[in-house]
Design brief:
Blueprint (H helix, E strand, L loop, with lengths): L3 H25 L8 H34 L19 H30 L6 E8 L2 E6 L5 E3 L2 E4 L4 E7 L4 E4 L6 E4 L5 E5 L5 E6 L12 E7 L1 H12 L7 H11 L25 E3 L5 E3 L2 H9 L18 H9 L8 H11 L3
Parallel strand pairs: 1-5, 4-10
Antiparallel strand pairs: 1-2, 2-3, 5-8, 6-7, 9-10, 11-12
Helix pairs in contact: 1-2, 2-3, 5-8, 6-8
Bound molecules: copper (II) ion.
Length: 351
């Protein structure tokens, strides 16, 4: 075979090129810690793609560069000599159709089986509700005394089923270390299953651009031992009614996502800061100036579009807090008034 030596060299170069490309890809796109049972299979699939991509890249680039360098025209060769012309090569065409087809099928089956595995229910899974809103997360534990939390606390090695929805626009739940990701859609419920394998602190960040403060839609995710989880449940279940109103106000402001838009310390977010708000004079969009008292705050929370703070648009603040508060208050047999607690808390930020 006339070109046998060339093919042998090219084959060796392709192997070397594939390895170099793979090592580069793996270091540039290094994956974060894998902290869930779902992660292993996903990472393997990911690596499978990287290996294939590296090989294809080397295959094309090595043939190309080798031909350009080795078969270039030498100074002593005439300029008008052309190479042989080929038209079609049935054997080659069959090969380059069948092999990619098989690869696509293999990856398709691999991916489908992995997905089936990841979404399969587990007998002893626990359910946690996840609610996304502009621009915060809320986690509810219906199987653990109805705790509501602004951080997601998970017992290690415990399969969990997240039941997720959004109260406004599309959001997406994503903890990179768990690898899996799921959109939250208003009016629909979607599930995501995770079994965390490593204790530690993570973050969930919204992975679906959802408005002004999308980039700040981040919550803590803590994976803890079973004992620590029990302790957390115990501690979180102590009736919120026993706290001081001002502490309750702080808790509600996190639970209902107010802190996604209002800062207690002057930081500018999508809504006016609460620092120094109470007792100040606010310029309204209508041109009027009003003194911020209890009544103004109550009205601003229950009917946000009624007295618009100048410089802020309408319909940014959720319009349904009255209902949401009533639902939550029902859990405490009317022992607490969320709106009163919030007012006391906002007032405390002006002292
Ligand atoms: Cu979001």
């Amino acid at each position: 075979m006339k070109y046998g030596r060339h093919f042998a060299i090219v084959a060796v170069l392709i192997v070397i090129g594939s390895i170099v490309a793979y090592v580069l890809l793996e270091s540039i796109y290094a994956l974060p810690l894998a902290a869930s049972e779902e992660a292993d299979g996903i990472d393997a699939l990911f690596r499978g793609h990287f290996i294939l991509i590296s090989f294809l890249f080397a295959l094309v680039v090595v043939f190309l560069l080798y031909s350009v360098v080795v078969f270039r025209r030498r100074p002593d060769e005439p300029e008008d000599v052309e190479g042989d012309h080929f038209h079609g090569h049935t054997g080659l065409e069959i090969v380059w159709t069948i092999i990619p087809l098989m690869l696509v099928v293999v990856f398709g089956v691999w991916g489908a089986r992995l997905l089936t595995d990841i979404i399969a229910p587990d007998e002893d899974e626990i359910t946690i509700n996840v609610v996304g809103q502009q621009w915060s997360w809320r986690f509810e534990y219906p199987e653990h005394g109805d705790i509501t939390s602004d951080e997601l606390v998970l017992p290690v090695h415990q399969p969990v089923r997240l039941e997720m929805t959004s109260i406004d626009v599309l959001h997406s739940f994503w903890v990179p270390e768990f690898r899996v990701k799921q959109d939250l859609v208003p009016g629909q419920i979607h599930e995501l299953r995770i079994t965390p394998t490593d204790e530690g602190d993570y973050k969930t960040r919204c992975a679906e651009i959802c408005g002004t403060s999308h980039a700040y839609m981040i919550s803590d995710v803590r994976v803890v031992s079973e004992d620590d989880f029990e302790a957390w449940v115990e501690e979180s279940s102590t009736s919120i009614a026993e706290l001081e109103p001002v502490e309750r106000g702080l808790t509600w402001s996190q639970q209902f996502g107010c802190t996604g838009c209002h800062s207690p310390d002057g930081t500018a977010l999508a809504g006016p800061t609460w620092q120094g708000l109470f007792g100040s004079e606010v310029q309204l969009a209508s041109g009027e100036t009003v003194l911020v008292d209890e009544e103004y705050i109550r009205n601003s929370i229950l009917m946000p579009n009624d007295q618009l703070h100048a410089g802020f648009g309408p319909n940014i603040m959720p319009q349904n807090f009255e209902e949401l508060f009533a639902e939550e208050e029902a859990k405490y047999d009317g022992e607490v008034s969320i709106i009163d607690d919030l007012i006391v808390y906002i007032q405390s930020l002006s002292e």
